[in-house]
C-alpha cells in the first residue's frame, strides 16, 4: 500500500468517477483503475462497488476512506513541516437543501479559513442526494430538515447509511413572498389565503416523494403549482408571479436583497433544521469551522 494509492482513492471518491479523477490526477483511466484494484486485492477488501451506472463506495470503502484521508493529511503536514513544500489545497464539501444561511456560512468559512489554494464544494441539491453525498463521503456535511411527517423515513435512511443528525434550530413555518404581494402587509397568513397564488417548490427528481420535499405540508393540494431546481429561479418567480413557498423564515438580505420577505404561516407544524455527518468519522478542521459558521449565520439572521 502506498501513499499515492490512498490519494487515488480519495480523488475517485471525491469526484465519483474514475474518468474525472484520472483527468485531475493526470494519469490514464486504466492506470488509475489498476492501482485501486491492486490496493483492494492487497487489503482483501472492496473499496468501490462497480456497476453499469458507475462506482460508489462500499461500506468497507467508507471506513477505509476516513482512514486514508487522515493518513494523507498527516503526510502532507510532515512534508510541509520538514520539506518546506508548498501547502496542498484544503478540501471541504457540503451538500444542502436550498438555505441562504448555508451559503452565508460557506462564504464566512472561505473568508476566515481559505488560504492561497483550496478545493471546496457547495452543492445545493435534492434531499435524497444530500444523504447519498454524505454516505459516500462526497460531502463531509449535509444540511436538511426533519419534522413530524418526514422524520420516520429520513431517520431510517440516515440510520441505514451510518449517518447522524445534529439539530441547528427549530423554526415555525413561514411563507416567502415578494414585498409587493398583497399578503406582505399581514402579520400572519392562513393556508386558505394562499389558494389564489402560485405555489413554488423544489423538484426532487427521481425521489419526488412527499417525504423528501423541502417544503412542509407537502401533501396539501395546490390549484397552481410550479417546481424549480434552483433558489435564484424560485426567488425570481416569487417576485414575477406573486408566488409563495414555505420554509423556515430565515433569509439573508446580503444574499437575497430586500425584495423577498418571510411572513408567519398559521399552522401547528415545526421545522427542525440540522446537519448530518458520518457517525464513524470526526469532522475535519474545516468541517468544525463550517458548523460554527452555520451557528453564527443563523444567529445573525434570527
TrEMBL record:
GO terms for molecular function: DNA binding; DNA-binding transcription factor activity. It comes from the Bacteria. Residues 1-58 form the HTH lysR-type domain. Signal peptide: none annotated. GO terms for cellular component: protein-DNA complex. InterPro entries: LysR_HTH_N (IPR000847), LysR_subst-bd (IPR005119), WH-like_DNA-bd_sf (IPR036388), WH_DNA-bd_sf (IPR036390). Keywords: DNA-binding, Transcription, Transcription regulation. Belongs to the LysR transcriptional regulatory family. This is DNA-binding transcriptional regulator, LysR family.
Amino acid at each position: 500500500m502506498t501513499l499515492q494509492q490512498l490519494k487515488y482513492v480519495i480523488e475517485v471518491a471525491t469526484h465519483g468517477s474514475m474518468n474525472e479523477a484520472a483527468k485531475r490526477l493526470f494519469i490514464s483511466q486504466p492506470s488509475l483503475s489498476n492501482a485501486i484494484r491492486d490496493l483492494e486485492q492487497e487489503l482483501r477488501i472492496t473499496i468501490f462497488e462497480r456497476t453499469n451506472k458507475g462506482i460508489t463506495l462500499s461500506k468497507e470503502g467508507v471506513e477505509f476512506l476516513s482512514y486514508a484521508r487522515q493518513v494523507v493529511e498527516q503526510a502532507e503536514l510532515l512534508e510541509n513541516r520538514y520539506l518546506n513544500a508548498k501547502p496542498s489545497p484544503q478540501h471541504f464539501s457540503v451538500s444542502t437543501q436550498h438555505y441562504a444561511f448555508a451559503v452565508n456560512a460557506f462564504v464566512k468559512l472561505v473568508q476566515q479559513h481559505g488560504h492561497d489554494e483550496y478545493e471546496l464544494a457547495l452543492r445545493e441539491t435534492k434531499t435524497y442526494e444530500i444523504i447519498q453525498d454524505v454516505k459516500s463521503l462526497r460531502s463531509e456535511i449535509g444540511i436538511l430538515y426533519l419534522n413530524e411527517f418526514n422524520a420516520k423515513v429520513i431517520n431510517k435512511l440516515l440510520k441505514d447509511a451510518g449517518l447522524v443528525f445534529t439539530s441547528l434550530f427549530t423554526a415555525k413555518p413561514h411563507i416567502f413572498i415578494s414585498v409587493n404581494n398583497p399578503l406582505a402587509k399581514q402579520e400572519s397568513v392562513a393556508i386558505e389565503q394562499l389558494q389564489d397564488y402560485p405555489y413554488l417548490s423544489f423538484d426532487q427528481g427521481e425521489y419526488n416523494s412527499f417525504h423528501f420535499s423541502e417544503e412542509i405540508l407537502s401533501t396539501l393540494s395546490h390549484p397552481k403549482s410550479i417546481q424549480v431546481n434552483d433558489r435564484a429561479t424560485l426567488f425570481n418567480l416569487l417576485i414575477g408571479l406573486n408566488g409563495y413557498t414555505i420554509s423556515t423564515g430565515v433569509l439573508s438580505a446580503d444574499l437575497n436583497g430586500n425584495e423577498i420577505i418571510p411572513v408567519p404561516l398559521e399552522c401547528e407544524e415545526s421545522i427542525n433544521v440540522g446537519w448530518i455527518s458520518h457517525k464513524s468519522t470526526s469532522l475535519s478542521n474545516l468541517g468544525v469551522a463550517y458548523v460554527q459558521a452555520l451557528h453564527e449565520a443563523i444567529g445573525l439572521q434570527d
